Amino acid sequence: MMLTILLLIPFLGALLISVLPSEGSSERVRTLSVITLVAQCVLSFALLLPFSAVEPGMQMLETLPWLPQVGLEFSLALDGLSLPLVLMNGVLCLVATVASRSISNRPRLYFALLLVISGAVNGAFLAQNLLLFFLFYELELIPLWLLIAIWGGANRAYASTKFLIVTAVSGVLILGAFLGIALVTGTVDFGIRPILNAQMGMTSQLVLMGALLIGFGIKIPLFPFHTWLPDAHTEASTPVSVLLAGVLLKLGTYGLLRFCLGLFPEAWSVAAPWLAGWAAVSVLYGSLAAIAQTDMKRMVAYSSVGHMGYVLLAAAAATPLGLMGALFQMVSHGLISAVLFLAVGVVYERTGTRDLNVLRGLLNPQRGLPLTGTLMIIGVMASAGIPGMAGFISEFLVFKGSFELFPVATLLSMVGSGLTAVYFLLLVNRAFFGRLAVAPGANPNPSILTQVSLGQQIPALTMSLLILILGVAPNLLVGLSQTATTQLSELATLLQPGGLT
Fold first, then answer.
1. How far apart are CA 257 and CA 241, in angstroms?
2. What pTM did the predictor assign?
3. Residue 319 CB contacts under 8 Å (≥ 6 apart), including other chains
C-alpha cells in the first residue's frame, strides 16, 4: 500500500487546502503545503528500504480492478528506472513550494495546483497500465496551464495557451498510439509489455512508435517541437519553471524509455540511426539558440532543449551504459536546472531585469548578489560537464555508451556540450563580472541591491549539494538503477530484427 499512500498524500493535501477558510493567510497555506510535501518526500525515500536494487523487473506491485471492460486497472509498481524519478519529483516539488514565498494572489488555488501536479507526476512514473499512465500524464496539464496563466508574466495568456494547445496534441498522439495497440492486437489488455512481430507487423510497430515519439518529443521537448518551452519558461514564475524543467519534461524522456523502447524494441532498433541523428540536431540547435539569447531565463530554457537531446541519443544506442547515462542525465538535469532557475529568479526579483545587455557585476561582494552569483556559477559548471559534478557523470555515460554505435551523432553532441560552456560563460561574464551596473530604472538604487538572506537560498544550496554528491559518488544512483537499465538494454538487443532464434 506504500505506493497508493504516496499518491494519496498530495491529492489529500490539495483537497484540505481547498476547503480552508478563504481568509487564511498565504503563509499558512504554504506551510501546510510544505508539510504535505515533506511527508511525501519522506515516504518516497522510505521506498528505498523494501526496494531491491539487484532484483530485475517491477517491485511492490499494487493492483486493483477499475474498468476491466476497457482494460483500465489501477496498477502501480516501480523499478530502478522509475524510483529515482519519484525521488526527484518529491525533492523538486518541495523545493518549488518552499521557494513560493511571494504568492499573495489566490494562494489556496496556487498551492493546491502544485500538490496536484506532484501527485500526477508520481502516478505517471508508477503506473503499470497504459491508460492509467495517460490519465496521470494528462492530469498535470490543466494545473500547469493555470499556474502560468494566473501567476505568470505580462505575456502569460499567450504562453499558457500555446503550452496548452501544443501539449494537448502530445496527449492525443499518445492516447492514439495506446488505442492503436489494442486495435491491432485485438485485445483490451493495456498492461506494459513488449510487442513483437508475432503480434504486430513492423510497419504497424513503426507507425505506432512514431506517434509515441512525436507525442513524447513534444513534451521533452525536442527540435522542432520545442517552441512552446521558451515562452512558457519566460512567463512562468520561478517555482513553476523549476517544476517544468526539473520534473515535467522528464515525463517525456521517461516515456521514451518505458514506452517507445520498452513497448517496441524491434521497431526501435530499426529507427535507432535516425533517432541518433535527431538527437544530434536537437542538441546543436538548443545550444546555438541559447547562445543567441539575451534573456537569462530563455537561455536556460533553450539549454534544456539541448540537454534533453542527450537522453534521446543514449536511448537510441540502447546500450547498458547509454541507458544508465540517459537516466543519470534526467536526474542531473532536474537538479541543475533547479539551481539555474532559482538563481535567475533571485536576479530578476532584485534587479527587475534578466537582460544580459544591461546587467553587470552582480558578483560584487559588498553591493551585489555574491551568494546568488556563486550558486549560478555552480549550476553553470555542472551544466557544462565540469568533472566532480553530476553533469559530467551523465554526459560521460551518454557519450561513452553511444560512441561505438553512432560515432558521428555522438561527436556532434559533444560539440553541443562544448557550446554549453560557451553560452553559460557568456551569461556569467556579462551578468556577474565587471563593474556593478543595472539597467536604468530597473532598480530604485542599482548600486546597492537588496541582499538575499541565507534562508531564502536554502533550496538552491540543497540542490547544489546534491549535484556535488552525485558528482563524486555516482554509484548512489548507478547502483540503484543499473539492473533496470541493463534489463531494458538486453530487451532491445535480444529483440532486434534477426536477433531471435
1. 24
2. 0.91
3. 401, 402, 404, 405, 489
